[in-house]
Design goal:
Strand content: 25-35%
Number of domains: 1
Number of strands: 12
Number of helices: 8
Shape: globular
Structural class: alpha/beta
CATH class: Alpha Beta
CATH architecture: 3-Layer(aba) Sandwich
Helix content: 25-40%
Distance between the termini: 33 Å
Radius of gyration: 18 Å
Order of helices and strands: EEEHEEHEEHHEHEHEEEHH
CATH topology: Rossmann fold
Strand order of the largest sheet: 6-9-10-3-11-12
Length: 248
């Protein structure tokens, strides 16, 4: 269980509050979709959970299986089972994808994975994501297309096997084929590892491939409405106008 209680957060170098008393409970093995207009606080929530230094939590709590996430460093949050797929993954020059992935797996597990087993898992995951085997020799995200960056994020997700994945606009910049492949990877991780998913998106197109158990509409740093998958379908037809007008 990932529990967010009365959370308040802002940019670290500004006074304007972005998250304004948010409360959410996310069950392991369930898919929660966060939807809402630009500037509603969706990405702020993602980075606040992950511990990005650009954001400051000014009140409330985040609990993972009862443990206080806010007392953990970024790497401790990762080892506890949190995973963030960023909207704009950063480049890491000089570090190959292969070394990056095996080092991350070793850090999480406390010991290096057995080489033969690791190579098999890596090969299978890359094949499922339709990635060229030579991809592992490239530097992390350096010169990657948008689709390659997102596939690499999901490759990490499948191999590192976290408890909860926070996917910040993973559908951003993907064509139809890449969107389908990436969504299939998320679904595999969800089904095979009982993964809890917090999926942040503007649009419903990714929800045609990743079926949400719950949909939460975010407006002005709070949950304006929540429901099942049918709520996303309604948003597709109606948009966010009625929420934003009432929030003014």
């Amino acid at each position: 269980m990932l529990k967010i209680n009365n959370l308040h957060a802002k940019l670290a170098d500004e006074d304007l509050e972005i998250i304004k008393g948010l409360t959410l409970e996310l069950e392991k093995g369930k898919v929660h979709a966060i939807m809402g207009p630009n500037g509603s606080g969706k990405s702020t929530l993602a980075y606040s959970i992950a511990g990005h230094p650009k954001y400051e939590v000014t009140g409330g709590e985040i609990l993972l299986d009862g443990e206080d996430v806010l007392e953990m460093s970024v790497d401790e949050r990762a080892r506890a089972g949190l995973f963030l797929a960023m909207q704009y993954p950063v480049e890491v020059p000089g570090v190959s994808v292969s070394n990056f992935l095996r080092t991350a797996k070793t850090a999480l597990s406390g010991e290096a994975p057995k080489l033969r087993e690791w190579v098999g898992d890596l090969k299978q995951a890359m094949n499922d994501l339709r990635m060229d085997p030579d991809f592992t020799e490239r530097n992390v995200n350096e010169g990657f297309s948008g689709g390659e960056k997102k596939r690499h994020e999901i490759l990490q997700l499948e191999l590192l096997k976290p408890k909860f994945a926070i996917l910040d606009e993973t559908d951003s910049g993907l064509d139809v084929d890449a969107l389908k492949v990436v969504s299939e990877g998320v679904n595999r991780a969800h089904q095979n590892n009982d993964l809890g998913v917090l999926l942040i998106t503007h649009y419903t197109r990714i929800l045609k491939y990743i079926k949400p158990d719950f949909v939460h509409v975010f407006v002005a740093g709070k949950v304006a409405e929540q429901g099942g998958a049918e709520l996303a379908e309604r948003l597709e037809k109606e948009g966010y106008d009625r929420y934003t007008k009432s929030a003014v």
